[in-house]
Amino acid sequence: xxxxxxxxxxxxxxxxxxxxxxxxxxxxxxxxxxxxxxxxxxxxxxxxxxxxxxxxxxxxxxxxxxxxxxxxxxxxxxxxxxxxxxxxxxxxxxxxxxxxxxxxxxxxxxxxxxxxxxxxxxxxxxxxxxxxxxxxxxxxxxxxxxxxxxxxxxxxxxxxxxxxxxxxxxxxxxxxxxxxxxxxxxxxxxxxxxxxxxxxxxxxxxxxxxxxxxxxxxxxxxxxxxxxxxxxxxxxxxxxxxxxxxxxxxxxxxxxxxxxxxxxxxxxxxxxxxxxxxxxxxxxxxxxxxxxxxxxxxxx
Amino acid sequence: xxxxxxxxxxxxxxxxxxxxxxxxxxxxxxxxxxxxxxxxxxxxxxxxxxxxxxxxxxxxxxxxxxxxxxxxxxxxxxxxxxxxxxxxxxxxxxxxxxxxxxxxxxxxxxxxxxxxxxxxxxxxxxxxxxxxxxxxxxxxxxxxxxxxxxxxxxxxxxxxxxxxxxxxxxxxxxxxxxxxxxxxxxxxxxxxxxxxxxxxxxxxxxxxxxxxxxxxxxxxxxxxxxxxxxxxxxxxxxxxxxxxxxxxxxxxxxxxxxxxxxxxxxxxxxxxxxxxxxxxxxxxxxxxxxxxxxxxxxxx
Lengths: 300, 300
Prior knowledge:
Two copies of one chain form a homodimer. By secondary structure, chain A is mainly α. Chain A contains 15 helices and two strands.
């Protein structure tokens, strides 16, 4: 997929497909809990890249593709978990951000209490959605394996653990080891989850799952370093969120620790490693490889 | 079990047993996420009645008891979900309570940001813990059914939905229909989950699950009405939390709508209904019946 016009078209199709799948699983806005569902859907329908569900499905397609019914609720669930973390991250007690994905943040629109509960409801709804996979023809034991991965990568030893350490050290200079821990968990964990759950639902072997975990980790680190770079060099309108927030918050990032040039180099190196391992694992990952490659050059 | 000394002894043993099981599943306080694990464990180890896990196991025992390995992680998971809701409920943006279960609340000890993330981590950890049941010999499809119930009763159409509507109508007079919706979800949903997941893991039939759901609903409503009563008549020291908070917050409760006398009567009626249905469902539920009966007379 050297032809970048084709890649862009295909990416757009896949994003729209992910979007349709996600919307199919959102809670109905009715009854007494209508406003809570509205608050949940408000954040879920804000424009997003839907990278994690797309990656999950690509990983799934790489390793077979028996029963679509199991992968789709997992795709929606992963985007819900990601969005849950954004709602709570933006709260006044945490990053205190007013804009996200080009829209006002949930607590600005619905109030702080409702945003805390909407975030909780969305995290829980992610699992409720993933549990719908038990209604498919996929072996329930395999769904159990996918759930274990999703839970672990989301939790205290995954995304939430990374956020916790990040918040604890807010405004305090940190070393590379801790920065690596935060990135590995805050950002890589859900990308690892995307690639691993996709693969496991398609029947991948243990060594393949371990490879997908390493690939996800490298993609995530590259993605986060690119995020740090964009916070310095990016365009506020294009990003849909404020720039220079790291500097404002005295945040240690890869850029503040190693400088812009080194950050660029590292993001490219990590991307290259991920692409190489993916190529040697399967001959089939053309779109996924293009997707990964596109991330280290992204402008938003 | 008319002899209340025996009941108290047995209850204490079962509480200690639930306590041991819960502690076995708590996250280790180590590595970079140590403080987050500490914040999670801080709230989980505060003295609690552990009613929900006890009820879950009792329901489980009623309907068979093949493989203990599946029920135990679910017991711990349910108490984690309950405690998660307490951490977030106590936050400044919600009830703004400084004491809970006789200890300072999580946000007072760890700060607001850490308390939000600890609550998230605990909700997620509940699912991670329940997923451990896949390592038991219980049929994964049955575990899937138990997870579906747990997820639904916790989520936007369960506990969290009830809390959402409760918070939205904070300080606004509400009618009995809405009050019933809030109680049904905020309080009954997790008790329904306890009885239903316990029963389903032990192999109960569909009509038995429906009965357990009705029983759980009635127990929960009685429990919440008793909570309203204790907020007016209870002792702050014994309760471990402030009294008269409903009045202070202009909160509509069963007591403010119907008066104390009617509230007592309703709690007793609901309890009686639950006891009758349980007795007719199985001849075996002696301890569970004593437990239910004891709740409507409780002082804390």
